[in-house]
Write a structure and sequence with these properties.
The protein has 2 helices and 3 strands. InterPro entries: Beta_defensin_dom.
């Protein structure tokens, strides 16, 4: 079991961390701010008069826009 944990940490360190350093622009998008820019609000459930377009920060919250 310890070997598997060590292997997973090594794999994470060798693949994801260099990618974050090489491409910092990916994964740094603040979806909540982008939702507000589009005149929307982050909510768990959209009203009937709103359109759900995307996820905000958490997968359970949606960006709701007025129709």
């Amino acid at each position: 079991m310890k070997f598997h944990l060590f292997f997973f940490i090594l794999l994470f360190w060798a693949t994801i961390l260099p990618a974050k350093k090489k491409y910092p622009q990916y994964g740094s998008l603040d979806l909540r701010r982008e939702c507000r820019k589009g005149n929307g609000r982050c909510r768990v459930e959209c009203h009937e008069s709103e359109i759900r377009i995307a996820f905000c920060i958490r997968p359970g919250s949606h960006c709701c826009l007025q129709k």
